[in-house]
Specification:
This protein is of the alpha/beta class. The protein has 9 helices and 9 strands. The chain has a 6-stranded mixed β-sheet, sandwiched between helices. It has a 3-stranded mixed β-sheet with strand order 7-8-9. α6 (about 195-210) runs antiparallel to α8. This is GTPase Era.
């Protein structure tokens, strides 16, 4: 379909905010499928992930971006640049704030400033209102948010429960320009299969491992081998130090087995076939500051 034909509307919607405000949960909710992994830990999303929602007369492509934060290594610098690129390349921006934290912090103001400077039509979203004792507790925060920029609208949301998700979609569609169908109608995400599989494994590792290890973990799919009745996925969990490798393995291999068991369930649902997941742990010192390694990971 050509741009503007029959009034079809389409566009890219960047979902931005500081770490852990619920961006991935919201994108999954709006798309209606799991395209982004979720975790209560910071830096869960490391690269923009596009989730596609098709509807009558429109195609909305939601872009889950990394949490915006001060760069401290090459990985975080790349993550921050991806946020800036997503802002400049999008038709609409959803700016997420955490209703449960009370007063907004410097990180929220920093993100709001980036959005204002980009000049893209933006909607402010106050997420996690389900955690408030009374919705009226959000009103002072709404006033504070409204002072950051000229937003097209402000929504009180619960991405987890779906509160106001559909009215938000309707508002987004109203802001989209006429345009082409960027992806075939059945597409949910354009993320390569190998990267999706790697993210599923990393999600389970984040859930299982202790606090000091997750940021040092990267997952790489070495090979996917399809046989008659089983798909074999060979994956490598990279860490930066030998001590971290021992933590990931766990006593008698218990931890790595747990990660593999939990990841296999999700991968089987994704691929619709029986899975054998072969997990190895490798020490790759300083991978977060190695540009070539980051490129291998799609970062």
């Amino acid at each position: 379909m050509q741009a503007g034909t029959n009034g079809f509307k389409s566009g890219f919607i960047a979902v931005v905010g500081r770490p852990n405000v619920g961006k991935s949960t919201l994108v999954n909710r709006l798309v209606g499928a799991k395209v982004s992994i979720t975790s209560p830990r910071a830096q869960t999303t490391r690269s923009p992930i596009r989730g596609v929602r098709n509807g009558p007369g429109y195609q909305a492509v939601f872009v889950d971006t990394p949490g915006s934060q001060k760069p401290r290594d090459t990985l975080r610098s790349r993550m921050q640049q991806q946020v800036l690129d997503s802002l400049s390349e999008s038709d609409v921006v959803l700016v997420l704030f955490d209703a449960a934290q009370g007063d907004l912090g410097t990180g929220d103001r920093y993100v709001a400033r980036l959005v204002a400077e980009a000049g893209t039509p933006a909607i402010a979203c106050l997420n996690k209102v389900d955690l408030l004792r009374d919705p009226s507790e959000a009103f002072p925060v709404v006033q504070e948010i409204s002072g950051f920029a000229q937003y097209e609208d402000v929504f009180l949301l619960s991405a987890k429960q779906g509160l106001n998700a559909e009215p938000l979609v309707e508002t987004v569609i109203g802001l989209l320009p006429t345009g082409p169908r960027y992806f075939p109608e059945g597409t949910v995400t354009d993320y390569p299969e190998s990267l999706v599989l790697a993210e599923y494994v990393r999600e389970k590792a984040l859930a299982v491992l202790r606090e000091e290890v997750p940021h040092a973990i990267a997952v790489e799919i070495d090979e996917v081998e399809r046989k008659d009745n089983v798909t074999v996925v060979y994956a490598i969990i990279h860490v930066e130090r030998a001590s971290q490798r021992m933590i990931v393995l766990g006593k008698h291999g218990k931890t790595i087995k747990q990660i593999g068991t939990e990841a296999r369930r999700d991968v089987e649902r994704l691929l619709g076939t029986r899975i054998y997941l072969d997990l190895k742990v490798k020490v790759t010192p300083g991978w977060r500051n190695d540009p070539r390694f980051l490129e291998r990971l799609g970062l």
